[in-house]
């Protein structure tokens, strides 16, 4: 499996080039490492945390920022199986985060407290997908 933990510059620039003045919803698919991998010398490097435990640290430290920005977890689900798509991709966390604007998301990722907390995410995550979506009308039919 190809791993994706942080955005590459081109992807981040494409994100920033889109309209920032409307709500966005970010589909998060996260696969944890069996054992968290903190950098050598980090206070938790030898703590023996699982990826899930390190990710909970990330969530706890970033929750006040998310609340301050008016963002929220819109939906969370428990992954069961992939019906269409790569069978080797299984996810430990599946959720949609809603931000009032893309500006709020960018404010979050540049916040100094967030930037310090992201080390937990990097230690926790084996691979992930983060997909930006714009809310649209709901309906009763596909398409």
TL;DR of this structure?
The protein has 143 residues and is of the alpha+beta class.
Indicate the topology.
Blueprint: H1 9-17, E1 24-32, H2 51-69, E2 72-77, E3 93-99, H3 102-110, H4 112-124, E4 125-133
Describe the structure.
The chain has 143 residues and is of the alpha+beta class. The chain has one domain: Alpha-Beta Plaits (2-Layer Sandwich). Helices cover 35% and strands 22% of the residues. The chain has helices at residues 9-17, 51-69, 102-110, 112-124; strands at 24-32, 72-77, 93-99, 125-133. It has a 4-stranded antiparallel sheet. α2 (51-69) packs antiparallel against α4. It is globular.
Task: Give the assembly state of these chains.
Answer: single chain
Number of helices: 4
Strand composition percent = 15-25%
Q: What overall geometry do the principal axes of the alpha carbons give?
A: globular
Q: Could you say what the CATH architecture is?
A: 2-Layer Sandwich
CATH class: Alpha Beta
- The share of residues in helices is 25-40%
Strand order of the largest sheet: 2-3-1-4
Output the keywords.
35% helix; 143 residues; Alpha-Beta Plaits; single chain
